[in-house]
Design brief:
This is Phenylalanyl-tRNA synthetase subunit alpha. The protein has a single domain (about 15-130), classed as Immunoglobulin-like (Sandwich), CATH 2.60.40.1600. The termini are far apart. The strands form two sheets. The chain has a five-stranded antiparallel beta sheet, with no helix packed on it. The chain has a four-stranded antiparallel beta sheet with strand order 4-3-6-7, with no helix packed on it. The protein has strands at about 15-20, 25-35, 40-50, 60-70, 70-80, 85-95, 100-105, 120, 125-130. The chain contains no helices and nine strands. It is mostly beta strands and about 130 residues long.
Length: about 130
């Protein structure tokens, strides 16, 4: 029976960290975005995030992002500098092609830093791509 279950991998969807100006904190802050680089809209998007280190962990947060059109991005959350040294995981679930798709993204400890920035698809800015 298990051989009949198909679990497709979500392609062309990314979790990225972008450093942006925050007027409330009057400084540069890291924000997490979901990027839809697919040719179709993704619907009923849910993102679960959590962080952990050897001796501490963050709360588990759940974000309902709704529908995200093709070639666009949606802000998921602000990530505090205190947890950049943690392993930060993001589990993304959405519907596309009449299927439920899921993918886990991980930022390794201290991987969110200015030294690791690359060009981000769709957003035309630089940031960090989660693995």
């Amino acid at each position: 029976m298990q051989k009949d279950i198909e679990i497709p991998k979500a392609e062309n969807v990314h979790i990225v960290a972008i450093k942006e100006w925050d007027k409330d904190f009057t400084g540069q802050q890291w924000n997490i975005y979901l990027v839809n680089d697919r040719e179709d809209e993704i619907t009923t998007v849910l993102v679960m995030s959590r962080g952990k280190s050897e001796d501490r962990k963050t709360s588990t947060l759940r974000h309902g992002l709704g529908n995200i059109p093709s070639k666009t991005a949606a802000k998921v959350e602000f990530i505090p500098t205190e947890v950049l040294g943690f392993t930060n995981e993001y589990l993304v679930t959405f519907f596309a092609e009449n299927k439920l798709l899921e993918r886990k993204f991980i930022f390794e400890p201290n991987s969110i830093s200015e030294e690791n920035v690359v060009e981000i698809p769709v957003m035309e800015s630089e940031g960090i791509l989660a693995k």
